[in-house]
Design goal:
The chain is an alpha+beta fold and 592 residues long. The protein folds into 3 domains: 2-170, Galactose-binding domain-like (Jelly Rolls, Sandwich); 177-346 and 454-485 and 517-591, FAD/NAD(P)-binding domain (3-Layer(bba) Sandwich), CATH 3.50.50.60; 359-451, no CATH class. The protein is 24% helix and 26% strand. The protein contains 15 helices and 28 strands. The strands form 8 sheets. Strands 1, 2, 3, 4, 6, 9 and 11 form a 7-stranded antiparallel sheet that branches. Strands 12, 13, 14, 15, 16, 17 and 28 form a 7-stranded mixed sheet that branches. InterPro entries: FAD/NAD-bd_sf (IPR036188), HdrA-like (IPR039650). This is Pyridine nucleotide-disulfide oxidoreductase.
């Protein structure tokens, strides 16, 4: 009987907590149709969800079969949101139960927050019942979960922790499955995480590489389509950069239509060929276990099954970009711009603020044989003859953030604001410049957002603008960046037309690709979590210094150094800080 029950759990994507209620998590639907699993915002809204990203064309139904405990009348709740209530949401969808379409239209409530919406009642006549999600617009309808109850009065959670406990109880999920103990646990599978894992594995460590996406590469993957940049041949230490060269995709270009250029499969092959690496894809780390100031383990949710897995480790690396592992562990961190009084930097503002560089979504249009329409709608950002952009492909400076939105906590709002800008500008071109753009079709728009900046973890050295411009020579200087300080701020004309809703940047980078600087190892570990390294845009730098170290070839080289350092920490049973105080020369010898 238990085997049959588990079979139905996997097959029908639900379980009943009692005879009165049924929970369906939409990411577990048997057939997704044209809907996609969007898992970027789990920490903010509590779960992966299904997204109907059709670029204005209705997508195929998502379908599953549900086993109800008994027939009869059930009340229905659906967790969703109106992602662009300006004034009427575009992401509308309906639910169809055993061929009967509910009257309720979801996604047009006028409320931008994720909520449970009561959608009336339905008569369930068959114990095994088909459920469909039917997209009505092609404009990013989204659905997280569906709840059926015999009772009209239920109290459904909306907070992240409450949702997790509710889901665990309703689906009768085990607390966790133990994945074992590792020498080195790397969280984040971008260039920094890949390089850290490979370096440590080749030196003999048992490594777990945990990535919350289906593909490796982060911003440089086919999901986000940004080429690696920076320089690998002007290093102070010649051994650094060799692994990054193996995984490089520098010829891919921005938003290339040929996704093979981003080398997802090549990177996966390299990782799979490393016998000391265990790769865990689609695993989102959401909790840590601590012993004092040391991390003992991390818990990760499998996005495709919602099961939880525990990974114990001796040494950990936060390569998430958002510093999510560091924040979970209580690591000291920074966000936004530091003041001149805090850092002594010439370019710092007088007062600290929350401004960050922005987030981008890549897109392109292709030339077709026929004319197509893309009507202007109210919820889109509205462009004019005086202000619009004649583009058929994304460019680097389309980005949202800049302190108007919190780059992490408001990450879904930022992505959706980019959607409104891109859709709105494209609708203007298709409507008012039909002779030029009539035969172009919006073919690709990534729903995965690429960040430039978020939280930064504080190490024993906080790298500053002064360090870079004055070429301060630290004894543990180890990773060489060649990018120069490259910072993005809201474009003034964009601010004029869209005040506090900017989506266009300008850049300050007078020395980009011209200025070498080698920064210290002590920027690559946490000052208060004793077994935590970091590599990527979340290392110990000020906002201004981040502008020089954030490109992906540089972050990949950070990962290589962290992998070497993790090996030496295991060799000497020491902390990252003790490696600096007691074994620095050996680390430098490893990279020389």
């Amino acid at each position: 009987m238990k085997i049959i029950f588990i079979f139905f759990l996997l097959l029908c994507s639900l379980v009943t907590v009692n005879s009165q209620s049924v929970l369906i998590e939409t990411e577990l639907f048997e057939t997704k149709g044209g809907w996609s699993i969007d898992s970027q915002f789990i920490d903010q809204m509590g779960s992966p969800y299904l997204l109907a990203h059709g670029l204005g064309e209705v997508v195929e139904d998502a379908v599953t079969e549900v086993r109800f405990p008994e027939t009869g009348v059930y009340y229905i709740w659906v967790r969703t949101k109106d992602w662009a209530p300006y004034p009427k949401g575009p992401g509308r969808f309906r639910m169809i139960i055993d061929g009967k379409e509910l009257d309720y239209i979801f996604g047009a409530s006028g409320d931008i927050e994720w909520k449970w919406y009561k959608a009336g009642t339905v008569q369930i006549d068959n114990l095994v019942t088909e459920i469909r999600l039917r997209d009505l617009t092609g404009f990013d309808a989204r659905c997280d979960a569906i709840f059926f109850s015999k009772s009209a009065e239920v109290n459904l959670p909306n907070d992240v922790d409450g949702l997790r406990l509710f889901r665990q109880k309703m689906l009768k999920l085990k607390d966790f499955y133990y994945e074992g103990e590792y020498d080195f646990v790397v969280v984040g599978g971008g260039t920094a995480g890949i390089c850290a894992a490979i370096q440590a594995a080749r030196l003999g460590l048992k490594v777990a590489l945990i990535n919350n996406r289906p593909v490796l590469g982060g911003n440089s993957s086919s999901e986000l389509r940004i080429p690696t940049d920076g320089e690998l041949f002007r290093n102070k230490y010649p051994k650094i950069g060799s692994i990054m060269r193996e995984i490089d995709n520098g010829f891919a270009g921005v938003c290339n239509e040929n996704i093979s250029m981003y080398r997802d499969n090549w990177r996966l092959k390299i990782i799979n060929n490393e016998k000391n690496i265990s790769l865990f894809r689609n695993m989102h780390v959401y909790a840590v276990g601590m012993s004092g100031t040391k991390i003992d383990y991390v818990d990760a949710m499998d996005i495709n099954t919602l099961k939880t897995y525990r990974f114990s480790g001796k040494i950990f690396a936060d390569c998430t970009g958002d510093a999510s592992l560091g924040l979970l562990s209580g690591a000291d961190h920074l966000y936004g711009r530091e003041s001149k009084a805090q850092t002594g930097e010439a370019g710092a503002p007088e007062k600290s603020d929350s401004l960050t560089m922005g987030t981008s979504n890549q897109w392109y249009a292709t030339l077709t044989d026929s004319i197509s329409a893309f009507p202007i709608e109210e919820w889109m950002l509205q462009f004019t003859e005086d202000y619009h952009f004649e583009l058929t492909k994304s460019v680097w400076n389309w980005e949202t953030g800049f302190g108007n939105f919190h780059i992490v906590e408001d990450s879904e709002l930022i992505r959706d604001h980019n959607f409104r800008a891109i859709y709105g500008n494209w609708a203007y071109l298709k409507t008012y410049l039909r002779d030029k753009y009539g035969k172009y079709k919006l073919t690709y728009l990534s729903y995965n957002a690429g960040k430039r900046e978020s939280y930064r973890l504080v190490g024993d050295v906080l790298l500053t603008e002064t360090d870079i411009r004055c070429k301060v020579n630290y004894p543990d200087a180890i990773v060489t960046t060649t990018w120069g300080i490259d910072l993005h701020y809201p474009d003034k004309q964009n601010s004029k037309y869209f005040p506090e809703q900017e989506f266009i940047a300008y850049a300050i980078h007078p020395n980009k690709r011209k200025e070498d600087y080698t920064f210290p190892y002590r920027c690559l570990y946490s000052r208060n979590i004793e077994n935590l390294f970091m590599a990527g845009r979340n290392i110990s730098v000020t906002h201004i210094a981040l502008g020089a170290i954030r490109v992906q070839r540089t972050t990949g080289m950070m990962g290589e150094v962290v992998g070497m350092a993790a090996y030496l920490c295991m060799k000497y049973r020491c902390s990252p800080r003790q490696l600096y105080t007691d074994y620095l020369q050996e680390l430098l010898d490893c990279v020389s």
